[in-house]
Amino acid sequence: MTTLTRSNPNKKRSRRTLILVLVAFILPIVLAKLALQDHWFNYGVTNKGTLVANEITLQKIGMDKAQFNNKWLMLYVLPEACAEQCQQILHNINNTYVALGKEAVRVIPLVLTNSKLTKPQQAQLHSKKWQIQNLPIKAQQLFSQPQVLIVDPLGNVILSHQPPKNNQQLPLFGKALLADLKKLLKYSRIG
Fold this sequence. Notes:
2 domains; alpha/beta; Glutaredoxin; elongated
């Protein structure tokens, strides 16, 4: 009788162990299947800006890519009238450029504008690395609103970031732009 009582707890213990091992392996698979079916996550999205759907190149904008020496571009299309909010965005974009650190040599910050920048606007651009060019007519037709574009060294517009409407969203805008640029520069072998 003593052998029966001793083997019974061992069987219970081994069954419990078997059940725990099965649960440990099956539960993550079931949860992953449910997460994929019910779209619990926003999978596949790693960029913060909007991918440019139609093919836009510097040539289509009316610019020559050779003048940029195969470097990445952080291109800001200014609005018609650059008021205080626009100047804050310029300052934020300049800070994003500076935050690139050692990778900044691979990027050219560029402002496209219809009018000459005023002294307060130029004061927001602390770096002498900035290029300021007139907005080509083709670009005016393509971009009806102000935006920040990321252009690869081959002259293709890859991402578009819409500037925020209020100052509270400026830090998030700068962080999103910086995250996209750093990721692109990290994985790119050109530029």
